[in-house]
Amino acid sequence: MLDHGQAPPLAPESRRPAHPLLRRKPVEQLVAEGGQGEGGALKRSLTMWQLTMISIGATLGTGIFVVLGEATPIAGPAVFIAFIVAGLTALFSALSYAELAGSIPVSGSSYSYAYATMGELIAWVCGWCLVLEYGVSVAAVAVGWGQYLNELLDGTLGFTIPEGFSAPLGEGGYINLPALVVVLLCMVFLLRGAKESARINTIMVAVKIVTLALFIVIGFMGIKAGNYTPLAPLGVTAISTAASMLFFSYIGFDAASTAGEEAKNPKKDLPRAIMLSLLIVTVIYCLVALVAVGAMPWQEFEGSEAALAQIMQDVTGHSFWSVILAAGAVVAIASVVFAVLYGQTRILFAMSRDGLMPKAFAKVDEKTGTPKINTIIVCLFCGLLAAFIPLGELANATSIGTLFAFGLVNVAVLILRRTRPDMPRTFKVALFPVTPILGFLFCAYLMIELPMATWLCFGGWMAVGLVIYFFYGMRRSSLATVADVAAPAAEVAEQK
Fold this sequence. Notes:
By secondary structure, the protein is mainly α. It has helices at residues 12-15, 27-32, 48-59, 62-75, 79-103, 110-117, 120-156, 177-190, 194-220, 236-246, 266-295, 307-316, 319-353, 372-388, 394-419, 434-449, 452-476, 478-495; strands at residues 36-37, 40-41. It has a two-stranded antiparallel ribbon with strand order 1-2.
């Protein structure tokens, strides 16, 4: 165990000068630095079930409560097949995540895996994609929270928040106040520490699983066989398009990997948590989608912001059940905001520790064992983004950033198996190398299916990220200092 502030011993690989864009951070060094921040260390307090709940909390919510209503008019009754396709894509990548999380149990998720296998530039690109995946998706999720909050207020108190204060500029309002409020509430809880945050998250996850189970039971009674025919009225291509959109629903299953430095037994618990959370989420998504399109004609999902609540009311004839579902959705979506914010702060923590982000993001509060400044900055940024910016294509942009990062994780497994075949692994991808190759190809296929507007948005985001790296991160990287020291030493050795 390293003392606070003590630099880890350098692996031989890190002593050799390398081109700035290709320099890699050895696995041993990544693990040795685990938990160490500026002025303190993260606390190891999370169990396997708490890690699983973090992943479920980050995943299960907006996709089924909000995005389902947008994808069903595209895929028709076959929307549940689109969920399966998106889930299969996530599964291949989840297997790769599980292997790397068990081998490199650190907070950086796929950013750290890329750093160890493909070099600093690719790691930065991956980390920048994760900032898009986590940071921007929080804003998109928070907007969906406001929609269900209005449903709940309308059903219980008979009023809704005026559009001027529940929609951002450009969408009929001035500020999306509910979106800002939910992010700030999550910030308050996150600042209390990882253990307390995990307990709160577990409660919220339990509430949303019970709520969706209730929907499945009640919605099943309203199923009409005729609603399933024709199964794919808009063709097979439409299912692929919907699957690309619904991949947004699986964003977050990798959240457990961002807790690698706060898990009690990361090498064993991280792979289990990742696989178990994805299994639970996929089963729930497919069941809810199957029941939803059976209980309500797929054409009626068009423009429906709270489709599940509407189905509950139509089936039972009472608004009480729709209010219960809206209440569950409010908790469910809040838990997504909560868990995703957690993941974002830990990724920035790892990037900051490597010198690619300002050191403030790696400063740990001694009392709570959390990156306090990091959490406040991230939450304020995401809250303001959700409050004032019309998101539009950003949900799809989040999907493309995630698919890109997932694709790199599959490549990282292939590289690490080749370069470090004898490294201890608590979990191994089955049918190697077929599985990671398929994982990469599935990610690439869904990226291609996304619209051009999404690609343009993604290209702009990556351009900004590369500017930041070349003008800030490349020079301040912790490995840049190592290279500066190693290069003269190597010259002296050659002269001798």
